[in-house]
UniProtKB/TrEMBL annotation, chain A:
It holds the Pfam family PhoU. This is Phosphate-specific transport system accessory protein PhoU. Residues 21-108, 125-209 form the PhoU domain. It comes from Poseidonocella pacifica. Gene3D superfamilies: Phosphate transport system protein phou homolog 2, domain 2. The keyword Ribosomal protein does not apply. PANTHER family: PHOSPHATE-SPECIFIC TRANSPORT SYSTEM ACCESSORY PROTEIN PHOU. Keywords: Cytoplasm, Phosphate transport, Transport. The keyword Cytoplasm applies. GO terms for biological process: intracellular phosphate ion homeostasis; negative regulation of phosphate metabolic process; phosphate ion transport. InterPro entries: PhoU, PhoU-like_sf, PhoU_dom.
Automatic annotation (TrEMBL), chain B:
The keyword Membrane applies. Residues 11-260 form the ABC transporter domain. It is found in: Cell inner membrane. It comes from Poseidonocella pacifica. The lineage of its organism: Bacteria, Pseudomonadati, Pseudomonadota, Alphaproteobacteria, Rhodobacterales. GO terms for molecular function: ATP binding; ATP hydrolysis activity; phosphate transmembrane transporter activity. It is a peripheral membrane protein. The keyword DNA-binding does not apply. It comes from the Bacteria. GO terms for cellular component: plasma membrane. InterPro entries: AAA+_ATPase (IPR003593), ABC_transporter-like_ATP-bd (IPR003439), ABC_transporter-like_CS (IPR017871), P-loop_NTPase (IPR027417), PstB-like (IPR005670). Pfam families: ABC_tran. Part of the ABC transporter complex PstSACB involved in phosphate import. Responsible for energy coupling to the transport system. This is Phosphate ABC transporter ATP-binding protein, PhoT family.
Amino acid sequence: MSDQHILSAYDRDLESIQAMIMKMGGQVEAAIRDAVRALETRDSDLAMKVRVGDRAIDELEQLINEQTARIIALRSPTAVDLRVVLSVMKISANLERCGDFAKNISKRTGVLLESPPIESTAATVRRMARQTELMLKDALDAYIHRDPQLAESVIDRDVDVDQMYNTLFRELLTHMMEDPRHITACMHLHFIAKNIERIGDRVTNIAEQTVYMVTGELPTEKRAKADHTATETIDFGA
Amino acid sequence: MNDMTLLERGVQTDDIKISARNVEVFYGDTHAIKNVNVEIQDKTVTAFIGPSGCGKSTFLRCINRMNDTIDICRVKGDILLDGEDIYDPKVDPVQLRAKVGMVFQKPNPFPKSIYDNVAYGPKIHGLARNKAELDEIVERALRRGAIWDEVKDRLHSPGTGLSGGQQQRLCIARAVATEPEVLLMDEPCSALDPIATAQVEELIDELRQDYSVVIVTHSMQQAARVSQKTAFFHLGTLVEYGATDRIFTSPEDPRTESYITGRIG
């Protein structure tokens, strides 16, 4: 199949929304990286920069929505073109949400800076963040190179993020039980970890959309829900 | 995805109405249709799409032996209607065409009254015993053609005096007057404006309750709107045949994809 439409303006329309996705992806990558670095280095200025920068991501999403609506109205896309337009809409919504999570991490960083750091958890948060950043990078690469294998590998790697989150959850519980003065910081750290975990889920959605766009089918759910952390309780009597 | 309108679009029956096997058509030395095999379902709208000269109209015309009227045209292979070979020497093509009606690209009412346009077929096939029965048949056909309300007070004025969209619906009424089982439509809307097109499309969707409808169209959006099954023809071969929603979201053959997305093939 040729890559080019008989109507070349149609090609330009489709290229432009995909270019916007890549631009938005770059901004979200930077937001996550900066949010986590601000937390690590206790840098309140950098955290503030992430919070302010989220507006640009939201505006880009709005622009993408307008452009995709216009393409649907004017071009009536079908087959692969339709899948491109649909995936652009869904990916931009997921990226926007990732941007919100980065913003929320930065907000909580502001509060965390007011109390002493909880050292042992930093490494796990850093590893989690690193993993999701790499997943996002690969998900965007898979999208632009139309590579469903790479996208599938991103989906498979989300389980690692979930495991790190569950480990951290237990660590934080232990800290809070040891010393109630840590509760405020631990709660914020927990939400930060949860945000990173949610980013992993959103990146998985992006990778799934890439598989759909290329193959016309969503990947099948392979992963079993084996972890029970979400339903765990603590026995204070022990 | 469980939206009612999408469910309604689903094919309601698996009964095969028309079955074509190894069909080949030649116009003199030109090999117009190459080994086409297709099974067309009953109570379903099937759309034939493809670029000009791909053979979709030629194939459509094989289904009621309209190609018999072209001297240099030869048809090989089998086309079965309800399991019976329509090219069998015992089959009377006139009777066949009463069962397999046809509507053409340009509305072509007879230069007669609206009433006579519709009554002509039932009369020559002896479907009415008296005037009252004929009146009934005409009214039923005009209602089914979704034009009754517009013409009931002027049944004896000439059919050619109607607007283009009305003329086309009159032709559809004329085609259904002989109680056909299959309705073939060769670009029925290409000479109509968008409103008349929408009326004809609505009519096609209603006709699907009773008939197997096969429509040739150059408008892919029309194929997507009215049909449940789509067949893509290219250079005389049937490239891909399947559920319309699948063809328009994830076609299997790259040639189908190129054509429906408007790319250079």
